Amino acid sequence: MNVKMKCKLDYSKEIRWERNFLKKKCKEVGVEKEFTAYQMRLSANYVVVFLLLHLAFTILHCVMLLTTCEDRDKIYIDVGCYTLSTVLVTLVLWPSANPKCMPRLRYKKYLTSVLAVVFMVVTDLLLNIYHYHMDDWIIGSFFDTYTLFTIYMFLPIPYILPSLVLGISVSVIYTSYFVLYLASKHRYEISNVAHLNYLSVEISHQFCVNLYGAFFRIMREIIVRSSFLDRHQYVMEDIWLRSAREQEKVFLHSILPPQISQPIQEDIRNRIKFSEKHRNTPINIRRDRIMAIQIHPDVSILYADIVNYTYLTTTLTVKQLISLLHELYARFDLAASRYTVQRIKFLGDCYYCVAGLTRPDPDHAKCCLDFGLCMIDNIREVRAKEKLDIDIRVGVHSGALCAGVLGAAKLQYDIWGSDVVIANRLEGTGLPGHIHTSERTLQMIIEPRYEVQPGTEKARNDPFLQKHNVITYLIPFNVRPRTIPDLDIDHIKIIDSETELKKQSSIGLELREEFKKMPVGPISVKENFKEVFQLWGKDKDKERIRARPVIGIYLLHFRDPRLEYNYMHQPDYMLKYSMLLAWVFGLNLCYIQYVHDSGLVKNGVIVDLVVMLSLTVLLFLTWYKKLCFLRYSTQDHKYSRISCCLFRVAESIQRSLIKRIGIYMYTIISYFSIITVMLMDCDREEYEVVHIESKLYHYEPDMNMCFHPWLLTNMVCLIIGMSLIFTRIPFMMKVVVSTLEAITYMIILFFQFEYIVHHSLTTNPYFEAEYAHCLLVIITLLSLYFKERQTEFNNKINYKWREELLKKQHDAFIADQSITILLHNILPAHVANVYLTSLAKHELYYEDYAMVAVMFASLHNFQLDLPNLRVLNEIISEFDRILSYYRDDYLVEKIKIVGCTYMAACGLDLRFSSVISQERSTHESVIQEVLRARRSISVLRKDNYASSEKKEEVVFVLTTFALDLMRTLWTCNNDYRNVPVDRDVFTADMSIGISSGEVMAGVVGASQVHYDIWGNAVNMASRMDSTGLAGQIQVTEETAEMLRKYGLECNYRGMTFVKGRGILPTYFVGIDENYEFKYIYESRHHNLSDNSDSQHGSSEKNA
């Protein structure tokens, strides 16, 4: 039966832990140079650790020799040679202990490493030869395993291949010494099979130690490169996120001042965090609504209005008009930034701003007046350049105001107050080319240098100015003061490009600084001396010392259990390499046991077979996925169910800490089961008798009678090494296991097989063999512990850094989200994205739309004082809430709020689909009204409505939105009527005007990006509102015809005077007392029913 193909191989996670892939990736991202520099720092730290360890081991060795040897005269030369060797090794490696002093040339690193190894090896072998010739004392080599560990783990050799060459050379030297010197000149015969077997065991041991060292170097490079790339990736993401957030923040603060935007951002962040913690709990959008309004008691307000703007709208195209406004407003914005004046907004041809708003300024009155003169100068330059008949009126007044934002959508910074109205009236009653200012403003000028003339007659007769006793003056434009140089847009572009170059260089500098902060070890020598000898270190050092307890000193465990748990439960994608090394070590141990038990003891064979079979199965499981990847990486291959099952088993082992610990403990137990067989095969009493008789009768005993102690010690050293190097096993567990292994073996040496060990080769004259064995085990354990401690510390610090950065990125992401949400709540999403990605704020951005519906809705009988602002904020927020139901195909875009006027449009979305045919979970009124309109169309027109009528559907949608606003206002009226404190405050009615047609939308000016629309439809909608009646929706004749196509009644109002257009016919949309549309087909059906009833009645009467 054929096995079906069912899955594909996913090796994307594992390949990130492949050495070749990581090397290629480092070169791709351009961090190979920084990686090499970090390797130098890492090597320097390893050299420091080695020098301290080597000094400690030398002292321990010499002390033991001096305290345990009977004839000290024989070992003084040993102590002297060891001391001299340690001094020479320290002198040679000392330059490499400091990364700043580390030799830059590669051959110098190799030379110092080779010299250190030569000193250690020569000292060891020369002492052996010396004692053999001078004292006729045969001693074994002591530094072979220790030297090999040193080569691979501590010496500053940057690459693996030179380390392998040096390590193999040392192994060849020791093996040659074993063969050529001891074996041939003393008691062994090379032709003896047993001696050849022991030679092969020595070679296999040297091979395993070199393999262990190479494995450590490869694993260290993989881990370091992976950590390095992780840090590069996270730093780049952090830089990008901070840069984007900073860009958005600057962009946001150019629209809303920080004191207004920050409380709103904080509220948005709290809502985001609340939604993350309570995913299944709906968020109450209306809870704790923020009213972001502040009072500013001492400011100056400037209003400016372009004269003959209405004439320009009739003589210029919309595009030409927008280009002209952009040039003017860009000039105004640049001048405002120079004179520290805050532009609020512009309303068509009206531009108003405030000085002393964002920060207190005692010269705010002077700044406003100078800015007004600058505006007059700018518009005259444009008038001469474009040859247009335009001018500007400017009104300036000083006083107090309320500033902030109203509503919950498309927030815009605005100002309110009686002094704001005074400034507006001053502009309206002023003269072109003059600044019309109040007496209060002039009194705030310390050194007046303006030509002052009496105010206009129109201002003296203005009721509002008379009510507030405002005396006015005119300041004509003569010569604009040029104390500050001009700054044009081209110069700003150059500054922007220079800023971008500085930003790129700062990113590279920050990356290098972050790489320098990467840890190289638990504690440096310099810091160690500071802790011991200095209690008055710098604050930074004290902070770093106090920060260290985050990780345990000896077992390097996180003190935060959650962090330790997450660290330990990381998947192990290097498990296959650990299993390969474990398999080789197991094979080596089985071979040693085979050589020892030449008679093939049954128990030994069974143990060996079980161990190797189980290790082979685990090796196959962990390597099968990689072998399949190597075989089919270039092909689109599907695998059988068996292969898929093997993949899942391997992935399960990689992800499960419990399973990995189980494999780890099984491997260690398997090794010791082999050693146990060797120990059980040894008869101690028989060995003692035979050994004594061989000494008495001078014959060579059977060497296979019992285990060879040094072979067993070397085996235990390898097992300790395997216990400590196994990847992704908790460091605490590895330390405990390896320590127990060493203690158990030393107990065996001293208490169970003391006679056999005592009569084995020693390393120094009169130095008891069991001490030599224990010293080698202790040196191996401590060397590998400190090596692994360095690696584990770096891994944990990198992990903690990564977790902290991820938390910072999450917090930054929430902050970024709050800024993005706020920006999208100020500008349409596509406009905000354009300005955040590709467009500078001083460039013109516009869009053309063939059919857009525009609405103005104004509240009447509503005074803009502080109590009423709170009420207005609630009403506008309710209006904005209605916007959320007009998304997708029913997109209604809020444009702005002007005083008590709410402006919106439908049809501005770039994604806008004119066809409204899909049923969605949307506001009920929209669905009902659209369905009723469709039925009306089907009654009035039997054929399908044309594409032009599809475009006109935006008019109907916006009219439905306007009706929803009237319903909402009616609800607010009822709510506030029941509140006694607000009964006298809230007595507002609303008129609405709607028009439609071609519209241009975009952003003009050089700062405070504000999305606006222009065109005849905008002007007509404004006029329909201003000439309309409360409680009615007034539309133009063209708009009425479109609405009638959707079945809505549009009642002829009459001929209405419209400023700039003359007398035009206008219409009211049919609305009943329940705020429902009146439909034509319903009226006709009602009339037809009445006629039918009357005809039926008359026929009955005639009958």
Helix and strand content put the structural class at alpha+beta
Query: Approximately how much helix is present in the residues?
Result: 55-70%
Number of strands: 18
What integer is the average pLDDT? Answer: 80
> Which residue ranges are poorly predicted, with pLDDT under 50 across at least 5 consecutive positions?
283-287, 481-487, 489-502, 524-548, 912-927, 937-947, 1091-1103
Strand content: 5-15%
Q: Treating each run of at least 4 consecutive H or I residues as one helix, how many helices? A: 35
Can you tell me the overall shape? Answer: elongated
Alpha-carbon distance between the two ends: 92 Å
Give the biggest sheet: 8 strands, mixed
Radius of gyration (CA) equals: 44 Å
Number of domains: 4
Keywords: ATP-binding, cAMP biosynthesis, Lyase, Magnesium, Membrane, Metal-binding, Nucleotide-binding, Transmembrane, Transmembrane helix
Catalytic activity: ATP = 3',5'-cyclic AMP + diphosphate
GO cellular component, one term: plasma membrane
EC number: 4.6.1.1
Write a brief caption for the model.
Belongs to the adenylyl cyclase class-4/guanylyl cyclase family. Pfam families: Guanylate_cyc (PF00211). With 1103 residues, the protein is α+β, with helices and mostly antiparallel strands.
Mind explaining what this structure looks like?
It is a single chain. The protein is of the alpha+beta class and 1103 residues long. The protein has four domains: 7-234 and 551-807, no CATH class; 291-485, 2-Layer Sandwich (Alpha-Beta Plaits), CATH 3.30.70; 494-540; 831-1090, Alpha-Beta Plaits (2-Layer Sandwich). 60% of the residues lie in helices and 12% in strands. The strands form three sheets. Strands 2, 3, 4, 5, 6, 7, 8 and 9 form an eight-stranded mixed beta sheet that branches. Strands 11, 12, 13, 14, 15, 16, 17 and 18 form an eight-stranded mixed beta sheet that branches. α7 packs parallel to α25 (709-725), α21 (602-632) packs antiparallel against α23 (657-680) and α23 runs antiparallel to α25. The chain starts with a strand and ends with a helix. Mean pLDDT is 80; it is low at 283-287, 481-487, 489-502, 524-548, 912-927, 937-947 and 1091-1103.
